[in-house]
Amino acid sequence: MKGKGIILVFLGAASFGFTPIFVKTGFQYGYSLGQLNIVQMLAAFVLLWGLSFWKGLRVKEIRRLDLVKVAVTGSTVGLTGIFYYGAMQYLPASIAIILLFQFVWIGMLYEWIFTKTPPERIHLVSLIFTLTGVVLASGLTDGGLELHPVGLLLGLLSGFSYAGFIFFSGQVAVDSHPVLRSSLMVSGSLVLVLLIFIRDIPTVPVLDMRLWTIGVGIALVGAVIPPLFFAGGAPLISGRLANVLSSVELPVAIISAMLILSETVTIVQWVGVFLILAAIFINEFGGKLVQRQQRRQVS
User: Fold this and answer.
1) CB-based contacts of 38: which residues, under 8 Å, 6+ apart?
2) Which of 43, 239, 241, 242 has the most crowded CB, counting CB atoms within 10 A?
3) Which SUPFAM superfamilies did the record assign (predicted)?
4) How far apart are CA 77 and CA 72, in angstroms?
5) For residue range 191-237, what is the model confidence (pLDDT) as tens digits?
């Protein structure tokens, strides 16, 4: 079961790494942030609920309180899309994904707040690695890159919402079917997106097949596969292991931005990326290694 969970979370995270391709393409064609988010969530809603009905799943299988929790958890998917895609309006995709990956240390805050587990010394080491990696990966050391303040803020907010999704997705209605949970999650996201972009609803060109093609692409890699695979895999593994596996999203997003969007990533920036990845592994496994060494010294 653990192996299945690892594979599902890994694939879900890797899928999310392809979202910049569709989002940047949508912006290039002149579509707004609201239009892309609305179409994405509508497509995800239809796809997931269609799959739920095809499988004969029923909402009655989940308790009413859990329904609310799943929907609220799902709203973090919508928030992540809004903040993350919004950041890409002002920043290169490779920089936006780096800011999204601040969920590494943000996740520590969530654990501290919700589980009363303060960060250990090894986690602070991980934080240093993360922040150093961000400085290098952002290109600030070259002096030739200026980060737009709005893009910077949106990117950091996407890290907070994504950390919330990872933290809570493995804790709500874990006994329900992953497809049904994902359908309920995307329902919460759809409601949130429609409320935030209510003024954009009349501007959506319903018969524009290019917009729907891009929207379906974003939906599949950003709102269908990640929550579906996380819903199926996260309950089978620890939260920390889920964080480590989700790190595959970073290199996938940056490599796809290089190859498809023709964005330039320097060697210094790659060093920063690897430092962020190292921080994730230190954060998740460093504590156990220290404990083992201490046990050996005592024995």
Assistant:
1) 193, 194, 197, 200, 201, 204
2) 242
3) Multidrug resistance efflux transporter EmrE
4) 10
5) 999 999 999 999 999 889 999 999 999 999 887 887 778 777 877 77
- Give the C-alpha separation, 52 to 74, whole Å: 16
Residue 128 lies in a domain: no
Residue 136 lies in a domain: no
The single-letter DSSP state of residue 207 is T
* For residue 143, pLDDT beyond 60: no
Give the dihedral sign, CA 169/171/177/180. Answer: negative
Contact predicate 119/172, CB 8 Å:
no
Is 130 among the domain residues? no
CB 182 within 8 A of CB 188: no
pLDDT digits (tens, 9 = 90+) for 24-37: 999 999 999 999 99
Q: What 8-state DSSP symbol labels residue 221?
A: I
Structural domain for 235, as ranges: 2-119+147-265
Q: Is residue 297 part of a domain?
A: no
Integer Cα distance of 112 and 34 in angstroms: 34
- Lookup result for tokens 């707004």: 32
